[in-house]
Design the sequence.
DNA sequence: TTGAAAGCGTTACCAT
DNA sequence: ATGGTAACGCTTTCAA
């Protein structure tokens, strides 16, 4: 491996000078700098980030800590979009991005959680929570107690080095529900999942609120998918219809799905049953993922600024690391109802 | 930061002994080990991966080097699936996963490319190429010359530390085309993209071959999307139809899309024009991404073992790192035609 | 403006 | 079975 010593020797200077050149410190005389740069080029030298990390006690890397128990989480469009945003911000600031899914089957220890921080792999992390508020409370407490730097997605949080980046989930769900109510719907069902997730609690509350506000509290109807896949969404939809059949009550005339992936599965089942969207049942999704406008009929949905969330989260963390901590500890980005044809 | 020295002091032993315990070396006496483990627990000690990396000249990290010029690459279902597979394998072997998209706007230098290796951030990388064979040839040469360990996706490669993990793209495309021909289609168009990509060259060749074999060489018809999004696929489809209109020739009766994402956009346009799939035009996709079975009509497509490719690639690399290099330098995984209803 | 040397946390060798 | 110590490659004083 080529080291800073090799470069120093080649350029006839000391390692300190090479270091100064690398970091663009203005102390070096122009022609010395020139000699050093040439040596670097000639020897094809890259400073060891590892040695730098050790010496400076900082890795210039941020982690993506995904607590989702689903090992295939990167294929979830929302996660992917967040990741893309994170990657963009990291690249811009010359930070590395480390993927960190704790091997834990869900119930992970504080040790596991803190390992990447404590071992110096990352300076900070963006945390994607899974489970109910209650269940991940301890995770946040551990992170806070450990005094590590992190940003949580879709969840409020206090703490010395804690940031939160959210979107207006409740508002979005409320707006979507109100839209349906405005269209004359009264039987509006919500599709969520047994796999809880902070944003879903908020979306659910927005739906509930809108229903109550319209005096439709008695019509609140929820069906849960086993997971966050389209197949799960189909299952939830089927269960819902069967429950109505069994209880002899009319089908809902509108569905608000916890996300677009679920909505896609639900629409598939409706088509199977010969139910027409939106004529027989209106469907609204959540997230506005890439395919929302390409399903048939094009999906009305609540747009979530996922890319921006990832980007902003990383930017906040990097600013904090570089000694210019954002004063805004909590960022709430707007959602927007995108009306297409499904509802 | 808690160091190995703190643990040593707490347990009343030397750092070397602590190190031996950490690595489970059988030289330590059981009760010494016990004392050390207690100290580790008590002090909440995590060995610094950075220091380990420096000392052992190995980071226990693999990189995902994505040469795709699209910064939103993680949202591509195929990339996401590969990433999921990589993540799974990395986690299993206690390796970290580093995301590495060279900031380069496409034409990246050898320096940039090798930086993560040379700087000790990663021990090896999975490389997702973009562009034509010719255009990325130099990238592979640089990697080979630098003697770094890597696995290329969807591209054959020779080299001391080079592996390749492919799927049977050409076979898949050929089978899909033959299926269409068997169904009586003669006017079969292929949708590709100006953004070339190794697998697409193979898919295209499979299509061409099947057409020629059936004596349909004159009917080969290709329309290119500007990118690999559904919107691009829609554009390519529109262009194709307009070209037929302009030239007064009949529309193709079948479409083989370069991937499912493109197929989705294409089907959208067909629906817009009142063309019925598959009655008027059959559509076959490629990849079998999650939503393939949920579009309307459910998409016939060629399944690609993307998850497994990512997983196997990382496994090969790790075996090589750990001194047990796989003898098989090239892995070809099978594709499979999944017949649903679109074609 | 440049250089010498200590130290970041760990491991591997050589002693004991 | 355990301990002392010199590296690993870099940055950061401090001195020249």
Sequence:
């Amino acid at each position: 491996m080529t080291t800073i010593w090799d470069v120093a020797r080649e350029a006839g200077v000391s390692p300190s000078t090479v270091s100064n050149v690398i970091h663009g410190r203005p102390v070096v005389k122009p022609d010395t700098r020139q000699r050093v740069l040439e040596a670097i080029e000639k020897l094809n030298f890259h400073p060891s980030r590892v040695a730098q990390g050790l010496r400076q006690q900082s890795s210039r890397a941020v982690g993506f800590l995904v607590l989702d128990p689903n090992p295939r989480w990167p294929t979830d469009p929302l996660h992917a979009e967040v990741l893309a945003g994170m990657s963009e911000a990291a690249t811009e600031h010359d930070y590395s991005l480390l993927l960190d899914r704790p091997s834990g089957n869900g119930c992970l220890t504080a040790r596991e959680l803190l390992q990447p921080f404590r071992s110096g792999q990352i300076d900070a992390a963006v945390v994607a929570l899974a489970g109910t508020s209650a269940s991940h409370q301890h995770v946040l407490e551990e992170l806070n107690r450990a005094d590590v730097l992190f940003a949580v997605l879709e969840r409020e949080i206090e703490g010395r080095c804690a940031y939160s980046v959210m979107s207006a989930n409740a508002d979005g769900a409320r707006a979507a529900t109100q839209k349906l109510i405005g269209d004359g719907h009264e039987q509006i069902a919500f599709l969520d999942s047994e796999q809880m997730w902070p944003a879903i609690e908020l979306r659910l509350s927005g739906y509930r609120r809108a229903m109550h506000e319209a005096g439709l509290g008695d019509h609140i109807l929820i069906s849960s998918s086993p997971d966050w896949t389209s197949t799960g969404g189909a299952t939830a939809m089927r269960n819902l219809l069967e429950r109505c059949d069994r209880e002899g009550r009319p089908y809902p005339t509108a569905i608000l799905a916890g996300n677009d992936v679920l909505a896609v599965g639900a629409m598939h089942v409706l088509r199977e049953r010969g139910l027409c969207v939106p004529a027989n049942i209106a469907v609204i999704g959540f997230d506005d993922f890439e395919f929302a406008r390409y399903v048939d009929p094009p999906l009305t949905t609540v747009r979530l600024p996922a890319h921006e969330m990832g980007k902003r989260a990383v930017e906040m963390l990097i600013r904090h690391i570089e000694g210019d901590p954002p004063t805004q500890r909590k960022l709430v980005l707007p959602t927007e109802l995108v009306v297409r044809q499904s509802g």
